[in-house]
Design a protein that fits this description.
Layout lengths: L2 E6 L11 H12 L6 E8 L2 E8 L2 H10 L7 E7 L14 E2 L5 E9 L2 H10 L10 H14 L4 H10 L4 E9 L6 E6 L4 E4 L4 E4 L11 E4 L4 E6 L2 E6 L8 E4 L15 H7 L1 H9 L13 E2 L3 H5 L3 E6 L1 H18 L3 E5 H4 L10 E7 L5 H12 L3 E6 L5 H4 L3 E4 L12 H21 L4 H23 L2 H9 L5 E6 L3 H16 L2 E6 L16 E5 L9 H14 L3 E7 L11 E5 L8 H18 L18
Parallel strand pairs: 16-17, 16-18, 18-19, 19-20, 21-22, 21-23, 23-24, 24-25
Antiparallel strand pairs: 1-4, 1-10, 2-3, 2-4, 5-6, 6-7, 7-8, 8-12, 9-10, 9-11, 11-14, 12-13, 15-20
Helix pairs in contact: 3-4, 4-5, 7-13, 7-14, 9-13, 9-16, 13-14, 14-18, 15-18, 16-18
Bound molecules: 5-amino-5-deoxy-1-O-phosphono-D-mannitol.
5-amino-5-deoxy-1-O-phosphono-D-mannitol (M6R) binds next to α9 and α16.
Length: about 625
């Protein structure tokens, strides 16, 4: 939530050279998925600080800058906002200035004690121009700096951070220190981009990927000062700290639309690659599975008696799919818990519990807090994450990275498939380690997994019918999704995609639950998607789901059935059959969800909606 960019370059002779506003604008374009309620930029130039800011999407700010350009500058900060304190207005847009107008601040997070601090400042006669918690920080910083200008902006930042409660990333510039940006982070993301004669700050690496792929990870409660040729990191107490350097393994092109009409369309198309890359290089010379960063011993993993998956939204549905696979392969009970519920119900976890935190961004605050709670209770935490340098992997005992590349569209697609793939790898790894499966059995499942990218490609190539149906259904007001076993989380994910992209009422149900209430929703013409398991499964799952299709059809539903090639049992009861290739039931979510993603994307597009930036949402939910 909220995107933050900072840039300090080398001013060229005569003021020419790379312009800070351009660099920051480009970073904001790449971060806009983090929030799009307003945007703003501040530059340090001509002995002062100047800002431009505007409510609404970045395009509005670009218009303002066209009419009233900022002066050329080598130091600039920029912000794209997801509103918390104060509505999405021009006045509440960042940057915020202190009373002198010589200091500007941008902020991501929530300062929880802002009301108290604001009252104190008002009492002292400080004038406020916004309703934000951020403006409080600007005034506090301005006062701290004015009290001891010689100590500098970093010292002022340290003093102010000591007074703030809550979660925050802050960037500040001051007219007295024209070639410097000071940043601070607590429970909110901030990474440093290391350039040649220029350095960068960003909420994530996308902010500066067009300029450098070398980055520095910052820890909690750290202050960073960047100039064009130096980066200094300290703790909030001023003691020197070292960030962890890393190389970003994707480039700027990976964060472009690449000829697709939207990032979401591109990311759906990227899915075969995302799965293949997540599977890549996972076996050692002896063919044994390996994880990325493992600080959990084999003995500890052997003694695990329960797994708890914590995640939110789509990542939680990936966890629900994982539950079926891991319980089946490893015979370890798996609970899946929404991260924001986890710590409030006093969960039963111990040293023998393995907590698996799944997160695309690695910055979801609910999941971060759940990770901390789990570790406090003595559990080991393994992160499944798509973002190097983010908080969740850094605070976990082990990491399995999904290599889906940057996911820009707010609705998660390729990260979901990569998360499920990573969960399968984890399940197989545990099964191998604990002796639940023989090496050839693990190899057999891995071989099937390696076929999935090609099968996803086949699904994608055969979806013209789904696109047509979606366009035809643009006026639909409600869609139901049914599934059993692994098809159940797929149904819920299909419903979530439709809700968030097309703003249509959609519900995903366990098909067996239908008769216990939801079937009352079915009236003539009601569209119902049904995810059908393979008829080659061992039990009666398939025939039960076929019965469920009949039940809703008998009540007038229009049935859209996702079934594997060759399953003729569904044909008499399906208004539409969407075919997917054959694979084992446990791996089938990787194929069955794809038509549902395409359906939601196409329907939202037909309604004229912005599929990359749906209303009210942000890509990384960095507040609780
Ligand atoms: O970055 P995370 O995977 O932790 O994000 C979790 C959810 O916020 C995310 O999956 C959200 O539900 C998506 N918008 C779904 O498309």
């Amino acid at each position: 939530m909220c995107g933050i960019v900072g840039y300090v370059g080398t001013p060229a002779a005569g003021g020419a050279g790379v312009d800070g506003t351009e660099v920051v604008l480009e970073g904001l374009r790449r971060l806009e998925y983090r929030g799009y309620d307003s945007a703003g930029i501040a530059v340090v130039a001509g002995g002062g600080v100047q800002t431009r800011k505007k409510a609404g999407k970045l395009a509005n700010l670009v218009e303002v800058l066209g009419a009233d350009p900022l002066p050329a500058a080598a130091t600039a900060i920029g912000h794209t906002r997801w509103a918390t304190h104060g509505g999405p207005t021009d006045a509440n847009a960042h940057p915020h200035l202190d009373a002198s107008g010589r200091l500007a601040v941008i902020h991501n997070g929530i300062v929880e004690n802002f009301a108290l601090l604001r009252a104190e400042l008002l009492e002292a006669g400080t004038p406020f121009t916004s309703e934000t918690d951020t403006e409080v920080v600007a005034h506090l910083l301005g006062r701290a700096h004015a009290a001891d200008p010689a100590a500098g902006l970093a010292a002022a930042m340290r003093a102010v951070c000591a007074r703030l409660e809550g979660a925050f990333t802050l960037l500040a510039v001051h007219a007295d220190e024209p070639g410097t940006i000071v940043g601070a982070r607590r429970n909110s993301p901030l990474v440093v981009g290391l350039g040649e004669g220029a350095n960068y700050l960003g909420s994530d690496v996308a902010a500066f990927i067009a300029h450098t792929r070398e980055a520095l990870e910052l820890g909690q409660d750290q202050i960073v000062t960047i100039t064009a040729d130096d980066v200094v990191v300290t703790g909030f107490d001023g003691t020197p700290r070292e960030g962890r350097r890393f190389h970003v393994d994707w480039d700027a092109a990976a964060a472009e639309k690449g000829g697709f009409p939207s990032f979401m369309a591109k990311e759906i198309h990227d899915q075969p690659q995302a799965i293949a890359d997540t599977l890549l290089g996972r076996t050692d010379a002896e063919g044994r599975l390996q994880l990325d960063e493992m600080k959990i011993s084999e003995a500890e993993l052997r003694s695990v008696d329960k797994i708890v998956v914590i995640a939110c939204g789509t990542a939680a549905y990936a966890g629900q799919v994982a539950k079926y696979a891991i319980e089946h392969w490893c015979r370890i009970p798996v609970e899946v818990e929404l991260a924001h519920e986890f710590r409030y119900r006093d969960p039963v976890v111990s040293e023998r519990t393995l907590v698996v935190a799944i997160s695309q961004s690695g910055e979801t605050m609910d999941t971060i807090m759940a990770v901390r709670h789990a570790r406090e209770q003595g559990a080991k935490v393994l992160a499944i994450c798509n973002t190097n340098g983010s908080t969740i992997p850094r605070e976990s005992d082990a990491v399995l990275y999904t290599h889906a590349g940057p996911e820009i569209a707010v609705a998660s697609t390729k990260a979901f498939l990569a998360q499920i793939t990573a969960c399968y790898l984890l399940g197989l790894y545990l099964a191998q380690l604990r002796g639940n499966k023989f090496a050839d059995e693990v190899a057999d499942v891995l071989a099937q997994l390696h076929e999935i990218p090609g099968q996803v490609r086949q699904v994608l190539d055969g979806l013209e019918q789904v696109r047509e149906i979606a366009r035809y259904m643009a006026d639909t007001r409600s869609v139901l999704f049914l599934g059993r076993h692994v098809g159940y989380p797929v149904a819920m994910e299909g419903a979530l995609k439709l809700k968030e992209l097309a703003y249509i009422h959609a519900e995903g149900f366990a098909a067996g639950e239908l008769k216990h209430g939801p079937i009352a929703l079915v009236e003539p013409g009601q569209p119902v998607f049904v995810v059908v398991p393979s008829p080659r499964g061992r039990d009666s799952l398939h025939s039960k789901v076929v019965s469920n299709i009949q039940e809703v059809r008998a009540r007038g539903a229009r049935t859209l059935v996702i079934a594997e090639h060759g399953d003729t049992d569904v044909e008499p009861y399906a208004d539409v059959v969407i075919r997917i290739p054959r694979t084992s039931t446990l791996l089938s979510p990787l194929l069955a969800v794809v038509p549902l993603q395409v359906f939601a994307c196409e329907l939202a597009t037909a309604k004229g909606l912005d599929v990359d930036q749906p209303r009210n949402l942000a890509k990384s939910v960095t507040v609780e």
